[in-house]
From TrEMBL:
This is POP1 protein. Residues 1-22 are annotated as: Disordered. It comes from the Eukaryota. InterPro entries: Pop1, Pop1_N. GO terms for cellular component: nucleolar ribonuclease P complex; ribonuclease MRP complex. It comes from Sylvia borin (Garden warbler). Residues 1-17 have a biased composition (Basic and acidic residues). GO terms for biological process: tRNA 5'-leader removal.
Length: 291
């Protein structure tokens, strides 16, 4: 028993030597490990910042910050009332519609009602100046069969009859709303058979993890092999969609295209009286060059 205890201690020492911090923190190894940990629940781009400061929960295919670990409630309230508080809402899903304005409005009118107030045709929203919000229903079923609340933004007009519309939906509602949109626009055919390029395959992940785990006395040699290995790319996708599914569809009759832009367009909410000044200090308008 004494020999076994000594043997286990010796094994522990060897294991600790094989994974030195420098090797574990190498960029390529970190990305491989992070991708491996995101197989079931996707991380937002602010995940690591939140994970250090919040209790995390797994919801709707994402890993989200639920409540702070420190007593920061007063600081958040102070920021909301006197300064600026930023929230990451990138887990909300973005559905993009492209096509002729009259065709888009004709079919979208079937999903909402003027009796509820705002529609996709509201002038201030249609111009692209303001974001709108409304409740969607199954086609021609108002006031029954409500799908849920959404917000929407029209891309400002560029002189063409073709328009672009972004509809933001909660991830729990995305599949139902996407199914209804594809049905009313008859977008049954994929625009293209598309596999998201930056998705890491499990084989690549395992190779990279093997490089990390095999670091031992021949550390330099293994490091060189690791550098030659295929670079691991960051996962692009979202928790509501398999990365190997198509994410764009087109209607052959009208040319209307629907694309799932979830996690491709990030979304942040700024709350507080200094929100506008924070934005103006942070964002600088690009100079428009006409050729």
């Amino acid at each position: 028993s004494k020999k076994q205890a000594e043997k286990s201690v010796h094994q522990k020492k060897e294991q600790s030597k094989t994974k030195c911090r420098k090797a574990r923190r190498r960029h390529i190894n970190l990305i491989a490990e992070f991708n491996h940990r995101q197989r079931k629940n996707i991380w937002l781009e602010t995940h690591i910042w939140h994970a250090k400061r919040f209790h995390m929960v797994k919801k709707w295919g994402y890993c989200l910050g639920n409540s702070p670990t420190e007593k920061s409630y007063r600081a958040c309230y102070r920021a909301m009332t006197k300064h600026c508080l930023l929230q990451d809402l990138s887990y909300y899903c973005c559905l993009e519609l492209k096509g002729k304005e009259n065709e888009l409005l004709k079919q979208l009118a079937r999903l909402c009602s003027i009796d509820t107030g705002l529609t996709f045709q509201e002038a201030c929203c249609l111009s692209g100046r303001f974001e709108g919000s409304l409740n969607l229903y199954r086609a021609d079923r108002y006031p029954e069969d409500m799908l849920g609340p959404v917000t929407f933004i029209w891309k400002p007009r560029d002189g063409s009859e073709n328009r672009q519309l972004w509809i933001w939906v909660h991830p729990a509602l995305k599949q139902d709303i996407l199914r209804e949109l594809k049905a009313i626009f008859q977008c049954s055919e994929p625009e293209e058979i598309c596999i998201t390029e930056p998705v890491t395959t499990s084989v690549q992940e395992e190779k990279q993890l093997e490089v990390v785990s095999s670091l031992g006395n021949k550390r330099k040699k293994e490091d060189k092999e690791g550098e030659k290995a295929v670079p691991v790319k960051k996962i692009i996708g979202d928790g509501t969609r398999d990365p190997f599914q198509s994410y764009s569809w087109i209607a052959r009759t009208t040319g209307i295209a629907i694309s799932d832009r979830s996690m491709e367009i990030l979304r942040f909410r700024l709350i507080g009286p200094l929100s506008h000044s924070v934005l103006t200090e942070t964002l600088k308008a690009a100079s428009i060059q006409t050729v």
